[in-house]
Amino acid sequence: MTQDPVDLACKPWWTQDRVRLLLADLIQAELARLQPLTADAVALSASDLDLDALGLSSLAFIDLATTVAVQFRLDETGHDSMLMERRRLADWVKTVLASRRTCDETIGFLTSGSTGQPKLCLHALALLEQEIEFFAGLFADRRRILRVVPCHHIYGFLFGWMLPARLGIPVLDARRILPSAVLRQTCPGDLVVGYPAFFALASRIPLQVGEDVVAVTSTSPCPPEVWQALAELGCARIIEVYGSSETAGIGWREGADDPFCLLPHWTRVPGSPEHLQRPQTAGPPCFWPLPDRVLWTGERQFQVLGRRDGAVQVAGINVYPERIAACLREHPEVAEAVVRPTGTGADPQLKAFVVPTNACQDLQGLPNRLHRWLTGRLLPHERPRSIRVGFEIPRSELGKLADWEE
C-alpha cells in the first residue's frame, strides 16, 4: 500500500532555506574530516553551489554523499542515489525535501566520538517535536536566537534549527564572531544557544549583555564559575540542558546549585534508578540507561555525579583511559593528557595525546620517553599503542573531546 505524502506545511523547519543551512553545516563538518584544506564555510553559503567544485576525490565525495544519505535517511525513500546524479547544493536540498514528503519519521545523528568511535543515533521526529514543544513554551517570549553551534548535531538541530522555526523567529549564525562580541551585540529578547567553553571565553572580557537576554548551554557540564560569570554579565536567565546524542534532552535546570528536572516525556523506571523510560509513538515504552551516574533528590529531580567508570576492554581486560591519562600527567614533561580507544573489532588498543610542559626541550623524543616511563607504571594492556604530542587537546567545535590521527 502506498504511503500518503507528508504535509510539510505543518513542519516549519522543512523549508528550502533551512535545509540548505542544515546541509551546509553537515557538509562543512565532513569537509573538515575528509579534506581539511578544502573546508571553506564561505563557499558553502552559495545557494546553488556546484559540489564538484569542492575538490573532493571520488571516494571522498562518495563518503560525503553517504553521510548525508544516512543522516536524512534517504535510503528509506529511495532518494539516496540522487545525491550522486545531481551534484549541486540546491539539488541536494530538493532531494532531502522530496524524501521528507515521502517519509518524515526518523533522522540520524553521529555522536562526537568523545568516548570512543562515533556512532549513528536514530531519532523519531515525532519525539524530537515533542521535546521542542516543551522548550518552545519555555522560550515563548524570545524574539531572536543567536547560535554558536552547528545544526547537524542533536543540540544544534533542536535549539538552533527546530526551535527558531517553531517559534517563528529569526536565527543568526554567530560562529564566525568572537564570543565576547556575540554577547556584546545581544538585544532584548535574545536567546544565545551556546556551550560551556564558548561562554567561558565570552566572559573573559568585561562587558554587559542587553536587557532580557537568556543563555542556554549544553553538550558538557557547565562549571559554577561560568554560571556566575554569565550572571554578572547581566543574563536574565541561564538554562542548562542535560542529555546526549542517543537520548536528546533528558533534563534542565536554571541554577548551578539546582538539581536537573526531568523533561515531561521522561519518567523513572521503578526499581532501576539508572534507567529512564519514554513513551514511543507506537508500541511499548523505550528504556534508556542514564549516560552518567546520578543522585535522585526527588521523583523527577536529580544531580549528575559524573560519567560512569568509562572502562574499555583491551585484550579482554577492563582498562580505564582516564586513570591512564592521570598517570601520564604525573610525568614532569606532560601538562595535559587524554587517552582513548583506537581500532575496532576484537583487538582494540589505546592511544594517547599529550600537551607538553615548558620543561620539555625535545618534543620529537617525548613519546619514546613516555613509553619507557609507562613501562614501569602500567600493565602491558594499559599502555597506549601510540602517543601523539600537540599544544592543545583536540576538541570539536562544541568544546567536546575529539578524535585525532595517530
UniProtKB/TrEMBL annotation:
Pfam families on file: AMP-binding (PF00501), AMP-binding_C (PF13193)
Domain AMP-dependent synthetase/ligase: 111-259
Keywords noted in UniProt: Ligase
Biological process per Gene Ontology, one example term: secondary metabolite biosynthetic process
Domain AMP-binding enzyme C-terminal, chain residue ranges per copy: 326-400
Molecular function via GO: acid-thiol ligase activity
UniProt xrefs under InterPro entries: AMP-bd_C, AMP-bd_C_sf, AMP-dep_synth/lig_dom, ANL_N_sf, Ppantetheine_attach_site
Domain of life: Bacteria
UniProt cross-references to Gene3D superfamilies, sorted A to Z: 3.30.300.30, N-terminal domain of ligase-like
Name of this chain's protein: AMP-binding protein
Organism field: Caldichromatium japonicum
